[in-house]
Design a protein that fits this description.
Helix content of chain A: 55-70%
Largest interface: A-B, 59 and 59 residues
Oligomer: homodimer
Structural class of chain A: mainly alpha
Order of helices and strands of chain A: HHHHEEHH
Strand order of the largest sheet of chain A: 1-2
Chain lengths: 150, 150
DNA sequence: AGCTTTTTGTTGCAAATGCAACTTAATCGT
DNA sequence: ACGATTAAGTTGCATTTGCAACAAAAAGCT
């Protein structure tokens, strides 16, 4: 069985590093682009779901969101139907930087897929989605403090 | 052109989180497993090459190595042929934890590839290696402080 | 209804991460 | 051979990251 974890780690860290450096021009600090994109796509999303989408600790996400709220990129509104929940939205200012993030992501994706046939690109995409689905349960299990059996 | 970055990020963060939690039992702190495996595979490797293999900042790698040296997992020897270089090796103690890391990685990889045919597993592996190669130059360019044109 | 469990979010540490800036050794150019 | 550039590693500082532990609201249970 071939190893796929190593390449995935390399690719993710490399592209994340590139993104973080490039987004400093737009005054985004480390990781912020991830949250902005996800909130943009899911207006009104709550913290725990956002953290689970991105696969990042909820306390990390919480502080990132707080900071982005302070910087005027995001805003939170209390959900009147559920006083525990704070719904997160992109502000106008946040909406202005979104296209730049999107453009960067598109470009990196393009570079990543260079020389790969359209068919294989789709295959790769589908296989990666399958892998993401495959590990989801283990992630939640371990995060909950339970142990994996192996 | 399908997006592959998102799944890759999710998979990497999820599996990295799992690994870090599981390796606390063996007294490894965040990220240390990555270095240990790479040094194990490349005895005598130097810091800068190690950092570039893993795609992590060299100062981050430097401090991780220092800490692992203090904990007796790794050791460094001055290269007599080049006084700048410090060659890194796994110690006996480090060699003892290696099998546990390897086993965990194998298991996560297995979970990740569940339900994917052997043919597709190989295809996925090969495509990911291609992607890793595709982005290598951009990574080094941006790390060097130069800009990407897009 | 009343008690327990789960959901959602927050703080308090301690540690890792990485950009800037620096030192020293090696290599390059001429 | 010597000055300039690159390679290799380190330290300072600010920030992010995440595990524990907590608080409060909501949902489940009987």
């Amino acid at each position: 069985m071939p190893d796929i974890l190593r390449s995935i780690g390399i690719i993710d860290r490399a592209l994340d590093t590139i993104a973080n450096i490039e987004f400093k021009e737009v005054n985004l600090t480390r990781g912020q682009y991830l949250y902005l994109v996800r909130v943009y796509e899911h207006p009104g999303i709550i913290l725990e779901r956002l953290a689970n989408l991105i696969k990042v600790d909820k306390t990390t996400a919480a502080r990132a969101i707080q900071k982005m709220e302070k910087n005027g990129l995001l805003e939170r509104k209390m959900n009147p139907a559920n006083k525990k929940q704070k719904q997160i939205y992109v502000t106008d200012k946040g909406r202005q930087v979104y296209p730049l993030i999107h453009r960067e992501n598109l470009y990196s994706n393009e570079v990543a897929l260079t020389g790969i046939s359209p068919d294989d690109q789709v295959r790769l995409h589908d296989l990666l989605e399958q892998v993401a689905k495959n590990i989801e349960d283990d992630y939640n299990t371990v995060k909950r403090g339970e142990k994996r059996q192996y």
